[in-house]
């Protein structure tokens, strides 16, 4: 990333979205509303987003973190999204996944660069705290508070 | 700022002017935060702006502004124009956070490289826009986008700021809102260069169009004619005509007033900044005189307006 680092004094900007064919969006809506109430600027999309559309959106909106809701095997597409983000110069964006990720698939996602996986039972506050930390981590070392 | 940061900023500005969308996106983040690099970026791009046409869309919540913009983008893309969109959504007065969902309705352009969409939180600013929307337009202009579409937050009567920075302002209404048409009368209706009745497949649409036309007929005769159009944004019906009318109004504006684009935005920004500075000086350096005026107003010797005039005359002497 050759661009100058982002300013530190601003709200955290998060993209909450779903890739793949699953349409169960209640979870992503609940999380989006909670992040808003935590003071974040949340770009929300409906389900069924194409990977190239997510990459373009994340770039145009200059988000700090992408949160993906995966409930019905869509998590298997996540490594493809991670590659697409890297290829577009967006490796600085942190990605978290929430929903149903079987234990045996977890390593593949983390290896692909996913920062954190939220399993069923995760509290909303845990999600908020993790995203806050990750947004801080995406800053350059000299800009850390 | 150290040497590396300076080089990085110069490179960001160069990439922005070269039309790289990631650079535009990052520059907008800096402008929105208002501090640090914002003045340097804005100073460096001034010579690159003044090409884009800026079209504003405003109107009450739920009338279909985002969907109409989606249809207008489609029409402009047919005409080989590149389109940048700045879509403003309100921030929560309690948490400061926001859900930015306007681009949900513009999903069909999600992979089109000729379209750039940026969601903007109003960050507590009233008036229908964010405090930095005018500068975001400057950046989009400098990045070479042909047409810039601005969507305000769902607006009522006082969200008239859009008229100060757009070359053409479109007020979108919907049928069946009943008295809302009445409410529009004194507020955003007056800033419209074009009025659109969206959802025109609704049975009450024709009635709404007639009401709006009748209201316009009551205005002073020397004011410019405001076309009233009907659209169905979801099907695209009437949108080609809307784009033609926008073009006509744009030519008309440029022909009549010569005040458009950046000059218009600067006029608004400078007037705003001057207002803020005056207020600041009145409450700080002129604090003594202010105190005296407050006393005289409270004794009934002066009206608020006269007191303000005395203070201003004194300050500007």
Structure description:
The complex is a heterodimer of chains A (145) and B (317). By secondary structure, chain A is α/β, with parallel strands linked by helices. Chain A has one domain: Rossmann fold, CATH 3.40.50.280. Chain A is 39% helix and 17% strand. Chain A contains 5 helices and 5 strands, in the order βαβαβαβαβα. In chain A, strands 2-1-3-4-5 form a 5-stranded parallel beta sheet, with helices on both faces. The two termini of chain A are 21 Å apart. Chain B has 317 residues and is an alpha/beta fold. Chain B folds into 3 domains: 47 residues, no CATH class; 209 residues, Rossmann fold (3-Layer(aba) Sandwich); 49 residues, no CATH class. Chain B contains 12 helices and 8 strands. The two termini of chain B are 39 Å apart. The mean pLDDT of chain B is 87. At the A-B interface, helix 1, strand 2 and helix 2 of A face helix 1, helix 2, strand 3 and strand 4 of B. Strand 2 of chain A pairs parallel with strand 3 of chain B, so a sheet runs across the interface.
| Overall 3D form of chain A | globular
Number of folding domains of chain B? 3
**pLDDT < 50 runs, ≥5 residues of chain A:** 138-145
- Largest interface, counted with CB-CB under 8 A? A-B, 36 and 40 residues
Uncertain stretches of chain B? none
Number of strands of chain A: 5
Q: Percent of residues of chain A in beta strands?
A: 15-25%
**Dominant shape of chain B:** globular
Mean pLDDT of chain A: 90
The assigned CATH architecture of chain A is 3-Layer(aba) Sandwich
Which whole number gives the mean pLDDT of chain B? 87
CATH H-level superfamily of chain A: Cobalamin-binding domain
Radius of gyration of chain B from CA coordinates:
22 Å
Q: What is the fold named in CATH at topology level of the largest domain in chain B?
A: Rossmann fold
- What topology, given as strand order, has the largest sheet of chain A? 2-1-3-4-5
Overall domain count of chain A: 1
Query: Helices and strands of chain B, in N-to-C order?
Result: HHHEHEEEHEHEHEHEHHHH
């Amino acid at each position: 990333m050759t661009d100058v680092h982002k300013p530190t004094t601003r709200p955290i900007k998060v993209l909450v979205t779903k890739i793949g064919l699953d349409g169960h969006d209640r979870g992503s809506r609940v999380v989006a509303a909670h992040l808003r109430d935590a003071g974040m600027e949340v770009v929300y999309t409906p389900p069924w987003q194409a990977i190239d559309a997510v990459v373009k959106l994340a770039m145009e909106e200059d988000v700090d973190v992408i949160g993906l809701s995966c409930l019905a095997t869509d998590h298997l597409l996540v490594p493809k999204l991670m590659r697409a983000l890297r290829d577009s110069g967006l490796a600085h964006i942190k990605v978290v996944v929430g929903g149903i990720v079987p234990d045996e698939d977890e390593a593949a996602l983390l290896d692909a660069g996913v920062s954190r996986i939220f399993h069923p039972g995760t509290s909303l506050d845990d999600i908020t705290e993790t995203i806050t930390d990750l947004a801080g981590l995406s800053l350059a070392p000299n800009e850390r508070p | 700022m150290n040497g590396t940061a300076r080089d990085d900023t110069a490179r960001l500005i160069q990439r922005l002017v070269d039309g790289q969308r990631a650079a535009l996106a990052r520059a907008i983040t800096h402008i929105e935060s208002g501090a640090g690099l914002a003045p340097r970026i804005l100073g460096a791009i001034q010579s690159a702006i003044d090409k884009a046409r800026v079209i504003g869309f405003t109107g009450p919540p739920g009338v279909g502004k985002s969907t109409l913009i989606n249809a207008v983008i489609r029409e402009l893309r047919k005409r080989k124009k590149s389109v940048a969109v700045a879509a403003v959504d309100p921030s929560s007065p309690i948490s400061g956070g926001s859900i930015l969902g306007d681009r949900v309705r513009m999903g069909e352009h999600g992979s089109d490289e000729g379209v750039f969409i940026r969601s903007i939180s109003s960050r507590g600013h009233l008036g229908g826009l964010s405090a930095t929307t005018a500068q975001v337009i400057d950046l989009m202009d400098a990045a070479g986008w042909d047409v810039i579409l601005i969507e305000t937050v769902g607006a009522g009567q006082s969200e008239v700021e859009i008229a100060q920075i757009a070359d053409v302002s479109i007020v979108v209404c919907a049928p069946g809102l009943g008295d809302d048409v009445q409410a529009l009368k004194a507020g955003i209706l007056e800033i419209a260069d074009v009025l659109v009745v969206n959802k025109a497949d609704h049975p009450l649409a024709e009635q709404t169009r007639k009401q709006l036309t009748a209201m316009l007929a009551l205005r002073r005769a020397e004011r410019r004619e405001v076309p009233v159009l009907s659209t169905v944004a979801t099907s695209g019906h009437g949108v080609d005509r809307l784009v033609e009318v926008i073009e006509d109004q744009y030519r008309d504006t440029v022909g009549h007033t010569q005040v458009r684009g950046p000059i218009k935005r600067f006029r608004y920004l400078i007037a705003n900044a001057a207002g803020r500075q005056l207020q600041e000086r009145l409450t700080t350096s002129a604090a003594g005189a202010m105190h005296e005026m407050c006393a005289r107003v409270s004794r009934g010797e002066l009206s608020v307006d006269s007191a303000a005039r005395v203070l201003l005359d004194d300050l500007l002497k």
